[in-house]
Structure formats: C-alpha cells, structure tokens
C-alpha cells in the first residue's frame, strides 16, 4: 500500500511522477507477517514554467543584477542564462543592473535526464537622463517672430514633462507637454526656459536662455525719424523752389509784395548795364 491507501496489485506499468512516495509492504502467512517501508523517488527531466521563470521581467537600474529563473526536475536541474546576441559584446560584469542588461536571455535547465530552454525578455527601468532643450528656429528671437522650445529626455517609464518659464499670455503647450510654442515674441518672453522630466524613479531638469532681439525695431524707429527729418527738409526745399520759381515768373500777389524787398523780384528788366524793377499791375 502507498501511504496507508488501498492495496496495489503487482505488475509492470509506466512510471509517472505521481508514483513517488512512501510504500508499506506487508508479507503474511499462517505463521505471521512482516512489514517493510520503502520510499520511492521518481526522477525526470527538467522543465521551466511561467511560475518559476516569467517570460518578461523588469529590472531597475542600480539594483542587484539577478535573473530569477527556477526550473523543476529530479535530480534538481542546474539553470544557466545568457543574453542572446552578446557572444562578441557581453553585458558588463557588474553586480548592479545597468541599461546594457536589457534584452532577451535564454535560460537552460539541465540534469542527468535532459534539458529545457526558455527565453526571457528583460527590461531595465531608469530615472530620466540626458535632458536636452532646443529652440526653433533659434534662441535669439526677433521681436514679433514666433518660436518654440522642445524638451527631450531618456527614461523608462517614459517621463512626463513640466516647465518653469517667463509668464506670458502668448504661450501654447503641446498635448504631451514636451514643447511650448510662442507666437509674436515680446519682451515678456525673454528669459530662462527650464524643462523637468519626471518618472517614478526620479527627475532631471535642463534649461536654455531665450533672447528677444529688438534691434530691428530700433532700426525701424531710427529710419522713421530720419524719414521725418528728410520730409521736413524736402518740404523746405520745395517751398524755396516754388518761391524762387514764382519770383522768376512774377506770380506774387501785388498787395502782399508791395512795400517789401520781394517787390524787386516781381518784375525785373535789364536795360543796358542797369536793371529796372517795378510792380506790374493788371486791370481788375
């Protein structure tokens, strides 16, 4: 009998793992009986299942590097895992996890009765790194122009983004908050733009300085002032020209010119070596 259960008949059959256990053998005749206990062990080849060796595993950068992969078998199998594709460039021999450990590993369980294989994909999570900001088209912006500031960072899980920047009403953030667009740059938009990338493992920030250049505006103002001065000069010159021409043609009002030094210009005739000046009147 097995473990006090029902009596089993003798005979040959295929052994299964369920046959393992303690058996009690009792021999009996009319003179008495003898009892002996026997422990039966069933050996079998290795197997690797999802419970002892998940097909997808998550590591965190900086934690101890250990691939948890257990196999069943009797005798107990030896399990060895190696990263696929790293025959020429193996991962660093580091006691702690690095991003270079990410990839697919093949685990092999072996005992005297055979072996079993299982592939395991390892992802390595890490805090945000390499935060970079880019101003398009340039960090030197002309007043009234449009520009955008983009933020990029590496990290797993994918980082979320936050901003610290000069407050202004003409800001528009992207849906994922990775960039900010500015339409019609003004003096309020100049200053330091700081982007912070965050995930559950940490955060990191980066900054860029934006300058709003008003030199074109100053140039336009100067050109405007110069134009005004030029216009005044042209007006004066034009008046002088018209006046001189009028003087030559005698187109003055007689009453206004009478008794003034301009009366001589109204009518001038050359006579020999002398000049005769007079006012030419017309009948009403």
TrEMBL record:
Domain Ig-like, residue spans: 46-123, 128-211
SMART domains: IG, IGc2
Any single GO CC term annotated in Swiss-Prot or TrEMBL for this entry: plasma membrane
PROSITE patterns for the chain: IG_LIKE
Keyword match Membrane: yes
Transmembrane segments: 217-242
Biological process, per Gene Ontology: cell adhesion
Lineage: superkingdom: Eukaryota
Name of one Pfam family that matches: Ig_3
GO terms, molecular function: integrin binding
Record keywords, A-Z: Membrane, Transmembrane, Transmembrane helix
Name of the featured protein: ICAM5 protein
Organism in which the protein naturally occurs: Chunga burmeisteri
């Amino acid at each position: 009998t097995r473990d006090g259960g029902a009596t089993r008949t003798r005979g040959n059959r295929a052994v299964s793992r369920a046959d393992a256990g303690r058996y009690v053998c009792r021999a009996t005749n009319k003179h008495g009986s003898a009892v002996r206990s026997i422990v039966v062990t069933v050996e079998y080849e290795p197997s690797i299942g999802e419970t002892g060796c998940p097909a997808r595993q998550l590591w965190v950068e900086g934690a101890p590097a250990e691939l948890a992969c257990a196999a069943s078998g009797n005798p107990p199998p030896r399990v060895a895992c190696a990263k696929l594709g790293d025959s020429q460039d193996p991962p660093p021999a580091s006691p702690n996890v690095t991003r270079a450990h990410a990839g697919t590993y093949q685990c092999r369980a072996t005992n005297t009765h055979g072996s079993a294989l299982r592939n395991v994909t390892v992802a390595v999570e890490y805090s945000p790194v390499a935060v970079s900001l880019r101003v398009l088209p340039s960090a030197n912006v002309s007043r009234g122009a449009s520009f955008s500031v983009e933020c990029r960072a590496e990290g797993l899980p994918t980082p979320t983004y936050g901003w610290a920047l000069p407050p202004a009403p003409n800001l528009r953030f992207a849906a994922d908050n990775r960039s900010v667009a500015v339409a019609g740059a003004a003096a309020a938009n100049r200053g330091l733009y700081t982007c912070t990338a965050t995930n559950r493992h940490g955060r990191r920030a980066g900054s860029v300085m934006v300058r709003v250049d008003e030199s074109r505006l100053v140039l336009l103002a100067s050109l405007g002032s110069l134009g005004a001065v030029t216009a005044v000069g042209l007006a004066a010159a034009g008046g002088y020209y018209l006046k001189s021409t009028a003087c030559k043609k005698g187109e003055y009002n007689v009453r206004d010119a009478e008794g003034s030094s301009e009366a001589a210009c109204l009518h001038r005739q050359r006579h020999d070596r002398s000049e005769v000046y007079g006012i030419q009147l017309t009948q009403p």
